[in-house]
């Protein structure tokens, strides 16, 4: 079973990658609200981000 730290690290890395893609595509970074919503959506839809 994954620990909370492992799940948090994986989620953080996924969010970082998404923000990098957003910058490369649109030359802007995501704001806190967008990142928060993306994190919530990922945790709801993806079992690997749930503890």
UniProtKB/TrEMBL annotation:
Q: Which domain of life is it from?
A: Archaea
Q: Which protein is depicted?
A: Transposase
Origin organism lineage: Archaea, Candidatus Marsarchaeota, Candidatus Marsarchaeota group 1
